[in-house]
Amino acid sequence: MIAIYARVSTEEQAKHGFSLKDQVRQCQLKAGTNKVKEYIDDGVSGEFLDRPALTKLREDVREGIISKIICLDPDRLSRKLMNQLIITDEFDRRGIELVFVNGEYSKTPEGNLFYSMRGAIAEFEKSKINERMSRGRREKARQGKVLRDFQVYGYMYDKESEQFIVDEDEAAIVRLIFDLFTQPNTMVQGLNGIALYLTSKGVPTKRGASVWHRQVVRQIMMNRAYIGEFYQNRWNTEGMLGNKHRKDDEKVSMKERPKNEWILIPCPAIIDESQFEHAQRLLSESRRRWAQKSKHPYLLSGLLRCGDCGNTMTGRLSNNWGKKVPEYTDIKNTAGAKAKGCGRRVKAQMIEEQVWEQVASWLNNPNEIAAALQQEKTKEPFETGEIARIEKEIEKTKNARKKLIKLFAASEDGIAEEEIRQELKELTQREESLNNQLLELTNLLNSTHNTEYNMNVMMEAVQYYLSKGQEELTFDEKRDLIRQVVREIRVYEDSVEIYTF
């Protein structure tokens, strides 16, 4: 049985006219008969071996169904020289006659050399096509044009102008998300609360789904397009096209390019920049601010940090002469904790009363809030200390990896090889996690500290507090007001420092 193999990708069909019908017709002419079995891959890249029609052809060859294969060009079999050689070697070992319409393939040294040269040229051509397309897209982006519809919530894509325009209905939801997250609200709490709220109200997502997820809300909150900054050429997706042909542990992940390679495309702003920056500060603390509720509620949960060791201080019940007493401590007993803590402990009632007294004083006297914000400018940002600590941890992790690599190289007969590999993997993951924390803190430190906006937010907290009255406030309302005013509390041996936004 004679087989015809034809393949075309959309890109090649548009550029070179390699239509499937034309390929099949020329192959039939080469075969001299219409009694052939056709194997057609339509719109499939020649970069990978795992193609439906090609896979079926190889199976039929192994089963002895096919005796001769006709193809237009070697690059129809594959755009990679190595894959071409694998396929032709597989056919040769089974005595299959391989014929190309454009050029003959002979099993001689000269024929093999010519075939290899054509394969190398095809691979080079594919790389050049990709490079030209990427360069063209970058140049188009530099001209201020949006390359395609990126499906950004709050915007529509205008094909004629190649720009984003505001979708007023979606933009209203974007503003609502930021307001719910940055303003005092006892009904909706955190990213998950916003997602549940939008779902309950029947608001559709960009793709028309009825259910919102916290990660979708988080992506919206972090997207700088809403302050008029849309970036193209930010992500490197090279190689991801073939993920569907790879195993899970071999898949290529999307990587962020260096910031100097990003291309800024101005777009209509939906959110005020000061509110956006305020939201970024809240997001950096959201994981511990909105932690799951414990059996015993703690007023300052997610806000306390030891001023000496830098560990967060969490609430727990301590045993005091048979009586359970709530306290905050920086001690970490969980496996894999970054630092065990220096052992600082403080009674919950004492520090909660101290902090609430200060916050209530600010809320009762708005002028004190302005003074506190002004004083905040003179304090060293708490992020500075955290950055220094994380940089030390990164250095320690790097040194630990170097020692393990030396130990691995010096070990004989694979002694403890698996243990060393596992520890190296854990250290690599830890270093990556620390680098992510460092980047987040650095961005937070460099973000705009907008006193005017923060003052407006605090005035909203004042109005809410005065409208309720101190005696009428519930535990949850007190906690929300504290979180609205305070970004972090540092606990030292003889003092407590309260940092406002």
UniProtKB/TrEMBL annotation:
Active site per UniProt: S9 (o-(5'-phospho-dna)-serine intermediate)
For the Resolvase/invertase-type recombinase catalytic domain, which residue ranges apply?
Answer: 1-144
Against PROSITE patterns, the record matches this protein to: RECOMBINASE_DNA_BIND (PS51737), RECOMBINASES_1 (PS00397), RECOMBINASES_3 (PS51736)
InterPro entries hit by this protein: DNA_bind_recomb_sf (IPR038109), DNA_bind_recombinase_dom (IPR011109), Recombinase_CS (IPR006118), Resolv_N (IPR006119), Resolvase-like_N_sf (IPR036162), SSR_resolvase (IPR050639), Zn_ribbon_recom_dom (IPR025827)
One GO process term, biological-process aspect:
DNA integration
The GO terms describing molecular function are:
DNA binding; DNA strand exchange activity
* Record's protein name: Recombinase family protein
